Every structure is written in C-alpha cells, then in structure tokens.
Amino acid sequence: MKNVRVRFAPSPTGPLHLGSVRTALYNYLFAKKYKGNFILRIEDTDQNRIINGSEKYILNTLKWARIEPNEGFNYGGNYGPYRQSERITIYNKYVKDLIEKGYAYYAFDRYEDIENIRKSMNKQGIIFSYNASIRNKLNNSLCLTSKEVINNLNSKIPYVIRFKVPSSERIKIYDDIHGNISFKTDFIDDKILVKSNGIATYHLANVIDDHLMRISNVIRGEEWLSSLPLHVLLYRAFEWEIPNFAHLPLILNTKGKGKLSKRDADKSNFPIFPLKWKNIDGYNERGYFPEAFINMLALLGWNHGDQKEIFSLKELINKFSIEKINKSSARFNINKAIWFNKQYLQLKSVEEISFLFKKELNKRKIYVNDNYIKLVINNIKERVSFINEIWDNSFYFFERPKNYDIKLINNFIINIYHLNEIKNIFKHIKIFSKDYIKTIIMDYINHNNLITKNIIQVLRLALVGNLQGIDIYLIMEIIGKIESIKRIEYICTFLSKKK
Ligand code: GLU
Is residue 296 part of a domain? Predict the structure, then answer.
C-alpha cells in the first residue's frame, strides 16, 4: 500500500476512554505495517466541551502505551497546524467555496423561530428536520434575495452556514469493515458547517483536514458511521478524492448489552482510563503493564485467526490487517485483561520483577539483599498477576507475623508443647533444607500419633500469621533456621498469654 497516512483525531474533552486508545492503536498498527505516517490531530472546534489537561493526557497516554505518532500535534510536520482551533481561517476559506458553488447557504433563522416551527409541526405529528422539505420556507440565503442576504450580512445579523443536502439520493460507499453501505439522503438534515460564532463544526473541519493532511485511511469508531453520508457529500461537493473508511465496531460492556461506559467500569471496579485522571486511577496505576494493556486492546475486535494470543507490538504490526477486524462488537472482559497482565508478568525475568518489587519493599523501609528478593520472586511469581500483588503473597518472607488468626488454633496447650518440641529438634539440624525439614516433622508427627493437618496449620500460623502461603517447608528453608525458630518462639509466647 502506497503513502499510508492515518490519523488519530481525539477531541480534548477529558481523559481517553479505552475504546479511543484502541482506535489510536489500530491506526498506529496500520501506519507501521505499511511504513506510513501516524498523525495526531486535536479536534477542538467545539470550545464549550474542552476540558483542561486533556491534550496533555492524550500525549501521555500515547507515550505510555508506546504508540506515539510521528507527525501531528506536539510532533510537528508539513501539514500543520494540527490543532483545529488554529485552522479556523482555513475552514472559512473552504466554506466560502461551498457557498459560491451552491452546496452551502447562510441561515439567519433565530433559535426561537425554529423552535416554534418545531413545536407546531410536532403537534401535527411531524418531526421537524432542517432539510429539503422545508428549507425553502425558512429564513436563509436560498429563499432570500441576494440583496437581502448582503444586507443581513452587513448588518451583522447572526447566521450559521448549513450544508445543502440533496434530496432523494442514495449515497453508496464501501467501508473496509462493513462492506458496501448505502444511505438515503432524505434522512440527513442540513447540518451546520459553521456556527454563529464563526467556528467550523466537527464535520467541516474533519473533512477538510483529512483532505489537506492527505489522509489515506480513516480508521475510527463506529459511532461516526452515521456521519459518513454527510462526509461523503462534503467530499463530493469539494470534488476531492474520498479516503478509505474503516469504522471500528463498538466495545460492549461485560454483559454484552450496550457500549462499555465509565459507569459499567465503576460498578465492577475496573478502570476505564489508561492513566490516572484527577483522582481516578487508570490501568497504569492499577499495575497493568502497557504491553499487556495494548495486547489486550488489540485483540478486542481483531483476531489474527489462530489460537495465539500473546503478541508483542512488533508482532502486532506484522500481523495486523483491517480485514481481520471483526464486524460485530467486542465484549469487554476485565478477567481477560488481568490474564494478559499475568502472562506478561510471567514472561519477565526474575531480575526485572525483583527490581520492580524492590521499590515496593523500599517504600515499606525493608532493605534486603537482591539475591534474597530473587529467591522469593522465583517461588511466588506464578501466583500473581501484578507487581502490586507480590507483597500480599510474600510479606512473610520479609517480616514476622504481627498478628495470628487465632480462631484457627483449637488447642493452645497441646500446640505450645509440640511447637516447642519441634523447635528443639530444629536447633540440632545442620542442613535446613525443605526435604529434610519435612522428614523431621513427619517423623515427629508419626512418633507422637498426631494429626498432621493440625500441626502443619499451627506451624503455618507461626510462620505466616494465617493459613496462606507457599509450601511450608520451603518457607522455612527460605527464611532459614534461625528465623523459623524465632517465629515458633514468638507464637508460643503469644499463645501462652492466651491460655
Ligand atoms: N474528534 C472525533 C472524536 O473525538 C474524531 C472523529 C474521527 O475520527 O473522524 O472521536
């Protein structure tokens, strides 16, 4: 494919939703696959909806996810400026052309007048739409004389510029995901291209920019499919070549009913934003690796066709194709996201995990040597999906239990006696290895006719504080003889006070 130029065109109206990150990702993959350009354009013509901090958030997200554009807002390039609010004069020039060619017109209707007409039509059961059926009876340059229009303009009567949608036509267009689609123009109203404040609306700015920025493929969310006929009409009116379109299926909530929303995410306590926004944690803060997050997103609507699920970004670039994007909506599943994170964590070297975990230990003012950390990680990593789960699964390697779950101890006196005995045997052991410890303990249990489970549980309480943790003999081997003895002494003192 020649000269691939794609764009991600978010509006700075708040943090990016994970669906938007998927759109950015698919654009990125497509651009990289065909050695094209991935452009970032900020669509901020609707000034009322702008939220401070959004642009920075967009940039930080693309950087975190490692899917940075190589051209566009903040990246530069030959087709700038890449922020639409800096391109207003360009849009105004093009819209004048449309008016001159008869594809657009000035509409001077006051809001109240339109509302009155809407209401009276409603009463007759007719839905008002500013279109071919009524435009000639309203207050616009199609029915006013040119003198009246000039007068209105000179006397600064507020106006909007509307697109003159042709009546009773069928627009046919091919979408790379949805195939051939056709729309009847009668269902489209004469959309406002320039508002009364002189600023272009999304539709006009979007089409002009895609043309001027030489966008070859428009890959965007399915929510824009309904705007497609208007965009096609605009391209036709300008006599511009139409780019290829691909409208990505929606991401549905876990139940598969409706678009995945922030409310769905809040209800099930999973993140919807990639990064922290105000006080809401994103995937990053919850401990997701960007590679895992991206891999999960890539497969949410795209399928390579085989069983493979773990793809590096490089592999995704190689394998990605629009034909393999599913037509139907994808259903979001947070457990799958967690699963991906776990896979990526398991793929990391013990050194890397230890390095990341060491930061957590240091925050808790725990300083131990690196080999010890690596030993612990080696033994517990299969149990965790996130770095931030390591502490809960390994704290007992780093500190003595502070509390004991004493509900679990049924006979204090007998237990104290046996624990003391076992401790005394430990004192004489030279090689404190898990297999040998196990033999010693089992011999003791058999010799005294004890119930294995009871003794093991109380030992586990001594070492961990509750009934969690890896193989008990291995815990003892790792923390060592001295520490194991100390912990047994501790619980004995604790239990004797409870007697
Ligand atoms: N500005 C639109 C948005 O916020 C982009 C639509 C498009 O990609 O054409 O999603």
Answer: yes
The residues of the chain scoring below 50 in pLDDT are none
Claim to verify: residue 211 and residue 191 sit in the same structural domain = no
pLDDT tens per residue across span 347-398 = 999 999 999 999 999 999 999 999 999 999 999 999 999 999 999 999 999 9
Q: Is residue 81 part of a domain?
A: no
Give the whole-angstrom CA distance, residue 478 versus residue 375.
8
Cα-to-centroid distance, 172 and ligand 1 (Å): 22
43 close to ligand 1 (CB < 6 Angstrom): yes
Q: Are 209 and 140 in contact (CB under 8 A)?
A: no
Give distance in angstroms: CA of 55 to centre of ligand 1. 14
Report the CATH number at residue 380: 1.10.8
pTM, entire model: 0.93
Q: Is 225 in the pocket of ligand 1 (CB under 6 A)?
A: no
**Among 398, 377, 261, 291, residue whose Cα is nearest residue 67:** 291
Residue nearest to atom 10 of ligand 1 (CA): 10
Residue 170 lies in a domain: yes
- Using CA atoms, how far residue 419 sits from 456, 469, 478, in Å, is 10, 19, 19
Structural domain includes residue 80: no
- Rounded to the nearest angstrom, the distance between the alpha carbon of 61 and the centre of ligand 1 is 17
Same domain, 229 and 290: no
pLDDT at 460: 94
CA of 223 to the centre of ligand 1 (A): 9
Residue range(s) defining the domain that contains residue 355: 348-390
